[in-house]
């Protein structure tokens, strides 16, 4: 894709530096990498070619049309190879989404990097490769193979979320056009638009303000809005910001975030909202006297107090998995949709990567539908057996039932009294569901670039099959094993020991009984774990980070490298007693 129909071979790129970006469009870390690569694509346009290799996780992502839509939706301005059976993934021995492979002008793989946060390391590596190959005469400058697709003319372009307004109009995040749109009551015309239409983060009036792939929108209570001077909070996702919009004149103000992506450690403190980094806020909802933020980029929920202008952690630990319980101990995976029950007692959420519907009540999180990171499908029936596929939206109804935008199944599903049914299907990636003032249900049909009213219909029962992502487990011996996280600083950097040990390692397991010893948080990147021989298999959840600074610089800049893994393991007598993981993964 993105070559104007021309076949592209690696041999055609000899003389250029090539980065293969192994990604899948459901993955928030992969989307972060797309944004990290944009400045490099621009700066090194005459020597660098980036090829996206799309190796899918979900069944829906194997569809070529869905991939083409995602390439446009996320502004991928380089060629993309569709790798539905993951052949290229296996040839390059990729192990995680995302993975970057760097190929020098002579065709040799010179570096592999797993995870995100590699922009600075890549820049230094590119500078080194350019210098070396210009001296050798093996670097050829010129235009790349990217051919942009023709522009599209639709009312909206990949809308994300919607908010019915008191005057009967509907405010929509027109994500691929980096703006907000006010639709008339018939959903057929744009009355007003907020934003220039280009990526940016400027405040101001509707013609001057700018966004970058905005998503969630929520209305503040009128008494709160009167105090803070704006009515609506918008999750400005790719800018890592929350924006406030005053409905009277559509003036936009930044209310939370610095514009930098969060790469730090969590705490339970309140922080100045404008001084705190955020990470891909995807949806917002008013609950428990605050704006709750689905922070998809860290697999957590945060709160934002617009009056005190503070933010903080609300739920989650950053571990990407599914676990219920007290809010400070739960695990989520890319929460992407929020809805408060009409009586205010529950906050419902669509947890996209675990394909689950969950709710919060009285300081506890519960799962209504969903099995975990690797189990998904389109199956109705008892909620503990039903399956969804990467839902992005949720809507709590007055009768206690909940509608789910089951995005990758192209369906609207309903949970009610422990049962799941299908209300509508054949939709193009529905991403949000909202209740209009007249009681009708509006669906954001994102890949069809429109909003539609849900026709009243009797719910049906569907069994569309079960799917499971099978990643080869790592065999480990029962008893004591060594977890060894190998960290290589980026070129030109060194570990920053100014304030003590610059590393942090957090380990947990699913099920928890898998680990007899070794769970918890420590400094250092090596730890002995004791695996329970009575538990045949499970997943080790590992989060590692290391602080570095520029080497040999008078005023060194500081950097934080962070990566999390869910490592499937199988307990096998006589298997290895060491589990190596690579943080940053810079193998020159």
Automatic annotation (TrEMBL):
Regions annotated as coiled coil: none
Keywords: Repeat
Pfam family, one: Thioredoxin_8
Organism: Catellatospora methionotrophica
SUPFAM superfamilies found in the cross-reference section: NHL repeat (SSF101898), Thioredoxin-like (SSF52833)
Domain of life: Bacteria
Protein name: Thioredoxin domain-containing protein
PANTHER family xref list: NHL REPEAT-CONTAINING PROTEIN 2
UniProt cross-references to InterPro entries, sorted A to Z: 6-blade_b-propeller_TolB-like (IPR011042), NHL2_NHL_rpt_dom (IPR045302), NHL_repeat (IPR001258), Thioredoxin-like_fold (IPR012336), Thioredoxin-like_sf (IPR036249), Thioredoxin_domain (IPR013766)
Thioredoxin domain: residues covered: 1-131
């Amino acid at each position: 894709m993105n070559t104007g129909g021309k076949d592209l071979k690696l041999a055609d790129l000899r003389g250029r530096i090539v980065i293969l970006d192994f990604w899948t469009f459901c993955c928030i870390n992969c989307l972060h990498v797309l944004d990290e690569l944009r400045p490099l694509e621009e700066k090194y346009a005459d020597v660098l070619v980036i090829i996206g290799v799309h190796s899918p996780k979900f069944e829906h992502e194997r569809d070529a049309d869905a991939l083409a839509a995602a390439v446009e939706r996320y502004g991928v301005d380089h060629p993309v190879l569709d790798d539905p059976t993951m052949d290229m993934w296996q040839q390059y021995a990729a192990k995680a989404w995302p993975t970057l492979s760097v190929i020098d002008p002579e065709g040799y793989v010179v570096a592999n990097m797993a995870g995100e946060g590699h922009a600075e390391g890549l820049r230094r590596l590119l500078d080194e490769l350019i210098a070396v190959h210009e001296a050798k005469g093996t670097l050829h400058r010129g235009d790349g193979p990217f051919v942009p697709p023709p522009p599209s003319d639709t009312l909206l372009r990949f809308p994300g979320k919607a908010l019915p307004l008191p005057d009967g109009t509907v405010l929509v995040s027109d994500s691929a056009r980096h703006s907000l749109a006010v639709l008339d009551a018939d959903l057929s015309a744009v009355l007003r638009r907020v934003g220039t239409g280009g990526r940016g983060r400027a405040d101001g009036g509707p013609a001057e303000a700018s966004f970058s792939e905005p998503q969630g929108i929520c209305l503040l209570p009128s008494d709160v809005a009167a105090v803070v001077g704006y009515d609506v909070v918008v999750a400005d996702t790719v800018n890592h910001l929350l924006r406030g919009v005053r409905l009277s004149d559509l003036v936009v103000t930044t209310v939370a975030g610095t514009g930098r992506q969060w790469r730090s450690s969590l705490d339970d403190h309140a922080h100045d909202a404008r001084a705190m980094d955020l990470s891909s806020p995807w949806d917002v909802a008013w609950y428990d006297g605050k704006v709750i933020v689905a922070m998809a980029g860290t697999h957590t929920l945060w709160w934002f107090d617009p009056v005190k202008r503070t933010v903080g952690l609300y739920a989650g630990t950053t571990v990407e998995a599914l676990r219920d319980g007290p809010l400070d101990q739960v695990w989520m995976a890319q929460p992407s949709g929020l809805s408060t029950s009409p009586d205010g007692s529950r906050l419902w959420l669509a947890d996209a990567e675990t394909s689950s519907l969950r709710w919060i009540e009285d300081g506890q999180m519960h799962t209504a539908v969903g099995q975990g990171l690797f189990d998904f499908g389109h199956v109705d029936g008892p909620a503990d057996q039903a399956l969804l596929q990467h839902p992005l939206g949720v809507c709590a109804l007055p009768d206690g039932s909940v509608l789910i935008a089951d995005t990758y199944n192209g369906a609207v599903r309903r949970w009610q009294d422990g049962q799941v049914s299908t209300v509508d299907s054949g939709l193009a990636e529905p991403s949000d569901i909202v209740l209009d003032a007249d009681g009708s249900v509006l669906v954001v049909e994102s890949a069809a670039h429109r909003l539609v009213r849900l026709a009243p219909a009797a719910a049906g029962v569907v069994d569309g099959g079960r799917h499971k992502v099978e990643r080869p487990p790592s065999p480990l011996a029962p008893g004591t094993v060594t977890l060894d996280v190998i960290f290589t600083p980026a070129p030109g950097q060194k570990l920053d020991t100014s304030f003590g040990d610059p590393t942090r390692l957090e380990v947990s397991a699913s099920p928890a009984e898998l680990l007899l010893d070794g769970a918890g948080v420590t400094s250092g990147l090596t730890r002995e774990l004791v695996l329970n021989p009575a538990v045949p298999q499970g997943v080790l959840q590992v989060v590692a980070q290391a602080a570095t600074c520029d080497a040999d610089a008078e005023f060194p800049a500081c950097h934080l490298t962070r990566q999390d893994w869910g490592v499937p393991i199988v307990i096998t007598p006589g298997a290895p007693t060491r589990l190596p993981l690579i943080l940053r993964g810079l193998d020159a």
